[in-house]
């Protein structure tokens, strides 16, 4: 008889919110070394990898954003695995179905050993012995879970009521996390902690999923059939998103007649809160778990975590957790560790009182208030030269003028912000502000041929009268916004500029920019944005045709059809430049994703919608998991090229996450973006975040207001959808 293959499967999802501030949605606990020097994922791989037998293989199921992190952590310990990436989290039923369906495609009779990536089991050998004791029952059709004999009543775990007997036995019932009184009753009655580990054949899992969760199985199979290779991992197709969001316990285990349990006695913890971390950690004679730079005086049962080089002292206290991160500090009684999830503080530099935004509605309200009560008033007063009526190029963090010159891209963007704010009904004299700035733009920056110059001096003297495509993208958008205020003559002016775009047309398609990078995606991106805006106001003006031309060029040349990656610079044949001459920006992946989703939805263009989703997933690979921010630039393999994070990529991350329904990512982007806005003078912003989470001290560029305004408007529009 052949040996049935065994496939260890690691479920690598979850956010570990009770372990804030070390664990964040962008950097879940499984990737952090919480107990020992290796991450929980690495410890799990070391524990279960040896179970692969008879041709089996280690399988990891995770979210698409974490693929590079998983590969890096596997490489650190010399491990290998099949990595399957979900385009969005759909809970444990879908994750287990992915593993079952993939393994079933290799061998339906193979046994899957399904474990979580973030559990702590110090005795690896005891765990493997327990699993091997379940394989026989699994081969005969049971779905066996490991039930841990409780060390005492606990309210943090679910429980299993086993039937009497020895070895693998049937399950009477699964019960949810109880209160303290009921937990004590469960322990007295011989109930077991539900470890969340499962051992079953692929055939059994698929049969039970077909019987009890067919919608999950159907979506997973469709996603697998449309999967693509992503840098050595398998990313499921978008059909997976249709899977219902439900746990495996609810979907299958509480309904199946095949549930079984093996009681086990090894030490186990899901490390769900800081008290569990303290319990699992090495301690001194006083019960304190301390890093080398920490000291405890007259203290007992204290847990301290801090980065290297940070010195922490605790004096005269007991049962306390002190967790220090570069941007946040938690001090928590160990007995209150379960409350961390609800009380987490986003202690941004300069704003330690700021509470984490926990819903899109809350975020929309916060950003609307910031925009209407701070940013719009500040930039309409301090941000305007009172003599010339021109918008300033920037403001210092203290609100002082920063006017080294006047770029036309800045003047047009500010006109756009105030005209749109007035049209949106935001309280304030914003139409007057927009008209004053627009009058200055027309009087000082418009050439005799109707086009605009590129740059003026702070005194309005001419510095660069070259007309550039990029500047005219925003001139068109400013004209469109002013058309919304009833400004006369702007429709004809916009049509005239569109006609003059022929001066920039390129023989190989698209347009060439003036300057050192003539063949670029960026100028086209904002031309698509301007065309979409005008198409809504001037249906007979040919704007839809221009938008279609740019979008099709992007799909054909700017975006690699094989990898989905967006390049920035090209040669004259629209072949991407690579290496030092090329550039890959996560922020523009998000911005194009937003624009192509809008264009693709309007045209019912499935290719554009698919490309937008792919751009978004690749953009997420440029999000620093520790800081939760999109960095400036990456290399072609998405390793960091410029780890500084400017403000504008965060707004584009937010817009793309919103339009694609990625709520968790949108909240991550909201909380990251708010850190840039917590400044001594409310209404200005910080522009560049260093890799250590600190900010560069410099003036706030006015050009960012355009990005912020559009993101806030999108957030308000979609917050309740």
Walk me through this protein's architecture.
The protein is α/β, with parallel strands linked by helices and 721 residues long. Among the domains are: 6-272, Spore Coat Polysaccharide Biosynthesis Protein SpsA, Chain A, CATH 3.90.550.10; 276-343, no CATH class; 350-376 and 584-721, Glycosyltransferase. 40% of the residues lie in helices and 16% in strands. The strands form eight sheets. A five-stranded mixed beta barrel has the order 5-8-6-7-11.
Note the main attributes of this structure.
721 residues; alpha/beta; Glycosyltransferase; five-stranded mixed β-barrel; three-stranded mixed sheet; globular
Per the CATH scheme, the topology name of the domain at 6-272 is Spore Coat Polysaccharide Biosynthesis Protein SpsA, Chain A
Identify the strand order in the major beta sheet. 5-8-6-7-11
Radius of gyration, CA atoms, in whole angstroms? 29 Å
Relevant CATH superfamily of the domain at 6-272: Spore Coat Polysaccharide Biosynthesis Protein SpsA, Chain A
Shape: globular
Strand residue percentage: 15-25%
For this structure, what is the CATH class of the domain at 6-272? Alpha Beta
Number of helices: 22
Name the average pLDDT. 91
CATH architecture of the domain at 6-272: Alpha-Beta Complex
Strand element count: 28
Characterize the main sheet. 5 strands, mixed, barrel
**How far is it from the N-terminal to the C-terminal residue, by CA?**
56 Å
Percent in helix: 25-40%
- Sequence stretches where pLDDT stays below 50 over 5 or more residues: 345-354
Structural class: alpha/beta
């Amino acid at each position: 008889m052949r040996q049935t293959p065994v496939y260890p499967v690691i479920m690598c999802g979850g956010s570990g919110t009770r372990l804030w501030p070390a664990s964040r949605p962008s950097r879940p606990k499984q990737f952090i070394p919480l107990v020992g020097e290796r991450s929980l994922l690495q410890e799990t791989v070391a524990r279960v990898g040896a179970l692969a037998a008879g041709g089996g293989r280690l399988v990891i199921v995770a979210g698409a954003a974490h693929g590079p992190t998983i590969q890096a952590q596997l490489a650190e310990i010399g491990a290998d695995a099949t990595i399957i990436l979900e385009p969005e989290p759909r809970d444990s039923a879908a994750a287990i179905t992915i593993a079952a369906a993939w393994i079933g495609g290799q061998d339906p009779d193979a046994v899957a050993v399904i474990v979580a990536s973030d559990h702590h089991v110090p005795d690896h050998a005891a765990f493997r012995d327990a699993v091997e004791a379940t394989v026989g029952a699994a081969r005969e059709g049971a779905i066996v879970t490991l039930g841990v004999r409780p060390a005492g009543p606990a309210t943090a775990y679910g429980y299993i009521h086993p039937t009497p007997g020895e070895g693998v036995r049937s399950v009477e019932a699964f019960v949810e996390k109880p209160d303290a009184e009921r937990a004590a009753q469960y322990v007295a009655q011989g109930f077991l902690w539900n470890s969340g580990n499962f051992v079953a054949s692929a055939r059994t899992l698929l049969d039970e999923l077909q019987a009890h969760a067919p919608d999950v199985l159907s979506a997973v199979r469709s996603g697998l059939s449309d999967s693509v290779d992503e840098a050595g991992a398998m990313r499921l197709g978008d059909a997976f998103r249709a899977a219902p969001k439900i746990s495996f316990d609810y979907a299958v285990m509480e309904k199946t007649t095949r549930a079984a349990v093996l009681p086990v006695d090894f030490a186990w913890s899901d490390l769900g809160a800081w008290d569990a971390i303290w319990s699992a950690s090495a301690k001194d004679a006083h019960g304190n778990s301390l890093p080398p730079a920490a000291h405890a005086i007259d203290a007992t049962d204290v847990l301290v975590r801090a980065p290297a080089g940070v010195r922490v002292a605790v004096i005269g206290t007991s049962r306390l957790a002190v967790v220090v991160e570069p941007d946040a500090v938690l001090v928590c009684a160990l007995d209150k560790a379960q409350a961390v999830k609800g009380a987490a503080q986003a202690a941004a530099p300069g704003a330690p009182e700021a509470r984490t935004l926990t819903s899109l509605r809350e975020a929309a309200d916060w950003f609307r208030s910031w925009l209407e009560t701070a940013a719009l008033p500040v930039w309409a007063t301090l941000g305007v030269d009172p003599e010339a009526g021109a918008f300033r190029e920037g403001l210092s963090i203290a609100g002082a003028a920063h006017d080294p010159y006047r770029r036309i891209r800045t003047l047009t963007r500010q006109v756009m912000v105030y005209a749109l704010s007035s049209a949106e009904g935001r309280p304030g004299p914003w139409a007057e502000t927009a008209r004053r700035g627009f009058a200055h733009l027309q009087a000082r920056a418009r050439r005799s041929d109707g086009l605009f110059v590129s740059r003026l001096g702070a005194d309005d003297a001419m510095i660069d009268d070259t007309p550039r495509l990029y500047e005219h993208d925003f001139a068109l958008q400013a004209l469109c916004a002013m058309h919304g205020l009833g400004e006369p003559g702007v429709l004809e002016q916009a049509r005239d500029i569109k006609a003059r775009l022929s001066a920039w047309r390129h023989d190989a398609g698209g347009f060439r920019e003036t300057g050192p990078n003539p063949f670029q995606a960026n100028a086209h991106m904002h031309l698509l944005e301007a065309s979409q805006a005008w198409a809504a106001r001037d249906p007979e003006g040919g704007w839809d045709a221009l938008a279609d031309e740019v979008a099709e060029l992007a799909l054909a040349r700017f975006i690699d059809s094989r990898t989905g990656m967006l390049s920035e610079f090209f040669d004259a044949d629209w072949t991407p430049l690579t290496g030092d001459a090329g550039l890959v920006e996560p922020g523009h992946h998000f911005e194009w994703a937003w624009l192509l989703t809008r264009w693709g939805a309007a045209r019912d263009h499935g290719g554009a919608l698919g490309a937008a989703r792919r751009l978004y997933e690749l953009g997420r690979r440029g999000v620093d998991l520790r800081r939760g921010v999109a960095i400036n630039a990456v290399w072609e393999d998405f390793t960091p090229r410029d780890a500084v994070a400017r403000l504008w990529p965060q707004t584009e991350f937010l817009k793309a996450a919103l339009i694609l329904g990625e709520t968790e990512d949108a909240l991550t982007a909201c909380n990251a973006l708010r850190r840039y806005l917590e400044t001594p003078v409310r209404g200005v912003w910080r522009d560049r975040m260093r890799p250590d989470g600190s900010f560069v001290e410099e003036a706030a560029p006015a050009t960012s207001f355009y990005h912020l305004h559009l993101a806030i408007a999108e957030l308000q529009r979609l917050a309740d959808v």
